[in-house]
Amino acid sequence: MTTTTAHGVGVSPGQVSGPVARVEEPLPEPKATPAPADRDQEAARIGPAAAAVARRLAERAESVKGEARAILETTSAMAGDPTLLANAEKLVRERGLPAPRAVFEAAEEFAALLASAGGYLAERVRDVRDVADRLIAELTGTAPPGVPELSGPAVLVARDLAPADTADLDPRLVLALVTEEGGPTGHTAILARSLGIPAVVAARGVLAAGAVGARVDGDTGEVELSDEPVAVQVAQRPAQRPWDGVGRTADGHPVKVLANIGSATDAAAAAAAGAEGVGLFRTEFCFLAATSEPGVEAQRAAYAEALAPFAGKPVVVRTLDAGADKPLPFLSATDEPNPALGVRGIRVAFDRPEIVDRQLEAIAGAAADTGAEVSVMAPMVATADEAAWFARRARAAGITRAGVMIEVPAAALSAAEVLDAVDFVSIGTNDLAQYTFAADRMLGALAQLNDPWQPALLRLVELVARAGRERGKPVGVCGEAAADGLLAGVLAGLGVTSLSMVTAALGAVGASLAEHSMATCEQAARTAVATAEPAQARQAARDVLHR
Ligand code: PEP
Ligand code: MG
């Protein structure tokens, strides 16, 4: 037996072994010839094929709940996207392309737009290609790519997983997920954690190894690949009590468990899952496709729809975070050499304050319409002066609670002064890691540096939390770090007062907090912060929190 070892980032804990099931790669590029004899007839095949794919995805959505359902519904909607279909039909009619090729080209054009936008939008490229592959498979009568039918327990190995692949995975059969690409903040990581499946991402070389069996350590990120079958060994998962819906430690210290949302659909799902409120409403997600600034009334209506399920509950609305990974056509400069370091987030408003003023007016209106307890916060703040500038404008708009995100190391290092200028802060660990380590958060190759267990990142969190404690002001975390059940205990121990995360993680994080006293969390935090690297930090926390 020959074995090789690949190292990735462990994003969901547990040790397992078993046979490898490889997730099929996307279909080969469809040929541009022969031209169809009847272009209209060929174009007319696209609509029904799309309807069939959308229906199947919608049926799968019906059979699952929560986040998985939302993902499958989104993918189903994308399969029926009228613009994509109209563009494909046009390519058949105007250029005489066979329908599968036309779908491929229309999807690639869309994907190129998203990829050039970068970041969050670039993550959608995988979804668009996945939908195109399903349509092409339907049109050509071939099996769609993706997760194979499993007849027994297996370790799934893939280049990356599309949301629709992971959404309805059966945790009884999937021993672990291992991906060659992806990063700690991607959806594979989030879903694996919510399903309790061990997972390792950014494990370079796992595909080339062509392994038959694998041993996976979701804690250390180590994947041992073997050219011979490996006996099935199932992860030992400590039984976790269900979360009772109140965020607190075992001895009653409150740590709010909140949801991150970007739409009214997210808000409804978060409320149904028992979120105590919203710690981050990414308002830019409401307007990603807008080509001009939405008017105050349109903004007010969009925000009110998302706030409605949280009447009487706290909701932190973040002002537009445009630029870099989430460009908005009406706001973002397109010619910056380095958009992540450019005029993004609140910086857009320094030259054009009327934009933030109009948004604050709309948010105040939506708060009045819905009765949600609304606070506002600004993204990408670097100095106390900027924080004070934003708080003044929020108060002028009649919003009493104003805060800022801590995502820039300078803001973390000036936490005391920043907190003096505002009512609360929320740490965006995704960007704070990216800027602290000078490592693009979207690059699989740099995933290790963006690991939220990096001690240097934890030390910055500690510094901010201490400043909050000294001033009696709340310090939240709303980056993906908050979605890791083990890390949640460490963050609470560092003094973080609320955790805001993707809805799928609420139950696991709430239950995990409820297992330990604050003194234990503090001890876990002390030992994790004192380590030299992420694996040691995880192990140190686990040793204290007995996982
Ligand atoms: C973050 O940077 O951690 C954050 C929560 O903001 P976003 O992911 O929207 O950039
Ligand atoms: Mg951010």
Automatic annotation (TrEMBL):
GO terms for cellular component: cytoplasm. Its main location: cytoplasm. It comes from the Bacteria. Residues 1-44 are annotated as: Disordered. It is an enzyme of class 2 (transferase). One of its GO terms (biological process) is phosphoenolpyruvate-dependent sugar phosphotransferase system. General (non sugar-specific) component of the phosphoenolpyruvate-dependent sugar phosphotransferase system (sugar PTS). This major carbohydrate active-transport system catalyzes the phosphorylation of incoming sugar substrates concomitantly with their translocation across the cell membrane. Enzyme I transfers the phosphoryl group from phosphoenolpyruvate (PEP) to the phosphoryl carrier protein (HPr). This is Phosphoenolpyruvate-protein phosphotransferase. The gene is ptsA.
